[in-house]
Design goal:
Layout: H1 6-34, H2 44-80, H3 86-122, H4 137-146, H5 148-177, H6 187-209, H7 228-233, H8 237-248, H9 254-257, H10 261-271, E1 285-287, E2 298-304, E3 315-316, E4 319-320, H11 323-328, E5 333-339, H12 345-354, H13 374-381, E6 385-390, H14 399-405, E7 410-412, H15 430-445, E8 451-456, H16 477-497, H17 500-503, E9 505-511, E10 529-535, E11 542-544, E12 548-549, H18 553-560, E13 565-567, E14 582-585, E15 589-593, E16 597-602, E17 608-612, H19 624-646
Parallel strand pairs: 2-8, 2-9, 5-11, 5-12, 6-7, 6-8
Antiparallel strand pairs: 1-13, 3-4, 5-10, 9-10, 14-15, 15-16, 16-17
Length: about 650
């Protein structure tokens, strides 16, 4: 044992530390699995394969972290092993390593545990889009600490970090307690040492590359089966975050940017029958309204937080969770096949108000906002006052600056409410905001000027604060709060309809996005499938069965009101025009659906899948023509959508 050069002991020490790191990351992956077990049960063979694949991704991250000590510590050992003070210096050197790994892995393990909770909501790993929350520290911390479930994840993170640090310190102490002799090495031993170190560093490099194949490790390498959960569980969340950040540095993902812009424009113009009037803004076209409502009714738009279409079909204790919304379908123009543009509230705000789809995981409501037209602009042009109501801080998601830059006159928020009425970090509950809104709209009605009022609900967003009366309505807070949200909307609408101004009001109810409900698809479709209602002011009820999108709301509503407009979006008057598919994004996925088939493509995985709705089987090989048609539609639509935003075609034409 004493004849072994000391630098080899150092290599052994580093290898054990590296294995300890891999073990801790595997533990985090098990926690991800345990806290997100699929509803259909566990396929143990697929799970084992996922865990093995996960080691490759974890090893890549671990090799990046180990690269610095693997480079410096063996060189230091070689150059000092002959010094009498080597043993004492070794203690200092390994102490530095403990601090290095301790700090870095404390952060990494926090990210991994947080990812397990993030996955529960988005059914995907944490990505660069999450950094948008850093600008709203107070609200974000309130969201985290206001949900008691998150406390358990915080405790879990502390336990995992403590176990890792304990094992790291214990191994280091055991290592330095051994007596390593002072060694004077001969020339041939130095040559051998250099060769061994080069091989060791070569292994580190291979680990960093992640693969001996032609291409370095990619997210898509984790995909091996038809079950999305087992494909995704192998991906390291830190690796996923880094890759999403790389995609975020480009204005348009390369797969979309590779499409010729002229060909994309020709395609979109043909599919949507766009006959542009301005060569500099080639999607802008005049539209002659198809009036369905007489006069100038008020317009009230209600965003229903996380209201997936599936919620309308959910029961608890023999009671529907959303009895009002279910019945409202019979008295509305109901869009039963509608899709949200994204999975975040800011996506829904821009999609519904202004008619654009987000650029994947990039925030669409920046402080330096793009200027849009859409519903608020055209209503203001026709004499409407534009108002928005939010439950909490209007600075969240840059709503205050974005809306004011985009034709909203007044925003009511937590600054205007009784401070004692706030129930959590998102401010007041929906019922309080609606009651406050009723008072404000009643006073507005006295001015004999039509108004557009947009309400942004939030009670159906965690942390949930369930009123006592609803605790017995369902088994858990997630379902109880849906019942409350349904009743809050019912109370507001029925109260408004009893007023004089409410009798002359067009109501629009739309979800900002859906929810992460169980589904067999790689992209979480319930996050996009949403209900849309248009009713009041003499509307004749009907069902819209064709595929629709949030971006179709503003062109349709303006047409119903008899307002001619220049349409500068990819939305259409859905009551008098037809779209073959809806397209939408979920951070790093592009989706296309007509309600019967669902096609999606992963920007990071570069993997496309085609499903027949209701089945998790990938039928891409069986339906190549259909897949090509849907891919062509989605890619070209998103290409032109992002071109419009990038080239400022979104701005008013006048």
């Amino acid at each position: 044992m004493k004849s072994i050069p000391s630098y080899l002991h150092i290599l052994k020490y580093l290898v054990v530390v590296h294995l300890l790191c891999l073990l801790s990351l595997t533990l985090c992956r098990l926690i991800l699995f345990i806290t997100n077990i699929p509803a259909e049960g566990v396929d143990w063979q697929l799970l084992l394969t996922s865990l093995c694949i996960g080691i490759k991704f974890d090893n890549l991250i671990a090799c990046y972290v180990s690269a610095l000590p693997a480079l410096l510590l063996p060189i230091w050992g070689l150059s000092t092993s002959h010094n009498p003070n080597y043993q004492k210096w070794l203690q200092y050197a390994t102490s530095s390593v403990v601090w290095y790994y301790g700090i870095i892995y404390s952060l990494l393990l926090c990210v991994h545990i947080a990812n397990a909770r993030y996955y529960h909501f988005f059914e995907n790993h944490i990505n660069i889009g999450a950094t948008a929350w850093f600008g709203f520290v107070g609200d974000t911390l309130g969201m985290i600490f206001g949900d008691t479930t998150n406390w358990w994840f915080i405790l879990l993170a502390c336990i995992v970090i403590a176990l890792f640090l304990f094992a790291l310190v214990a191994w280091t102490k055991s290592f330095v307690r051994r007596n390593y002799p002072v060694v004077t090495m001969r020339v041939n031993q130095h040559i051998t040492s250099v060769v061994v170190l080069v091989l060791f560093w070569g292994l580190i490099f291979v680990g960093i590359r992640g693969s001996l194949q032609r291409y370095p490790l990619r997210v898509s390498f984790a995909y091996f089966c038809s079950k999305p959960f087992y494909n995704k569980i192998g991906v390291n969340p830190v690796f996923n975050f880094i890759k999403s950040a790389e995609h975020g540095t480009t204005p348009i993902p390369k797969e979309i940017a590779a499409i010729d812009e002229h060909e994309a424009l020709d395609y979109v113009q043909n599919v949507l029958s766009i006959y542009p009037i301005d060569t500099l803004r080639p999607i802008v076209r005049p539209y002659e309204a198809k009036r369905m409502i007489e006069g100038k009714p008020n317009v009230v738009l209600i965003f229903m937080e996380s209201m997936a279409a599936e919620n309308l079909e959910r029961q608890e204790n023999g009671q529907w969770l959303t009895p009002y919304l279910r019945d409202l379908r019979n008295t509305s123009i109901y869009w039963e096949n509608c899709y949200s543009t994204g999975i975040h509230t800011n996506n829904g705000i821009v999609g519904v108000h202004y008619g654009f789809v987000p650029n994947f995981s990039k925030p669409i409501m920046d402080v330096n906002a793009d200027i849009y037209t859409g519903l608020p602009y055209h209503l203001k042009q026709n004499g409407y006052e534009t108002i928005c109501f939010v439950t909490g801080n209007p600075q969240y998601d840059n709503m205050n600056s974005f809306w004011r830059d985009n034709h909203i006159d007044q925003i009511y928020s937590i600054y205007d409410y009784d401070p004692q009425a706030a129930v959590n970090n998102f401010g007041v509950n929906d019922g309080y905001m609606f009651d406050f809104g009723l008072q404000q709209l009643e006073s507005r009605a006295q001015e004999n000027k039509p108004f557009f009022a947009s309400f942004l609900t939030v009670s159906n967003h965690g942390p949930f604060v369930v009123p006592d009366a609803y605790v017995g309505r369902a088994a858990n807070p997630q379902e109880q709060i849906i019942a409350y949200a349904d009743d809050a909307i019912k109370h507001f609408v029925e109260s408004a309809q009893q007023t004089q101004w409410g009798e002359n009001t067009l109501f629009i109810l739309v979800a900002d996005h859906g929810a992460n409900l169980p589904c067999p698809y790689e992209m979480v479709l319930p996050y996009h499938k949403i209900p849309v209602y248009i009713f009041g002011a003499g509307i004749t009820p009907s069902i819209v069965e064709q595929p629709t999108s949030q971006i179709d709301i503003w062109p349709t509503v303006l047409s119903m009101l008899g307002i001619d407009y220049n349409n500068n979006s990819l939305g259409i008057d859905i009551l008098h025009n037809h779209r073959p598919y809806a397209f939408f994004v979920s951070d790093d996925y592009l989706g296309v659906s007509d309600g019967v088939y669902f096609w999606c493509y992963g920007i990071q995985t570069q993997r496309e899948v085609l499903y027949r709705m209701g089945s998790g089987e990938n039928i891409l090989a069986d339906e190549p023509d259909r897949a090509t048609e849907m891919r062509t539609f989605g890619m070209n639509m998103q290409r032109v959508n992002l071109m419009a935003i990038d080239n400022k075609w979104t701005e008013p034409c006048e």
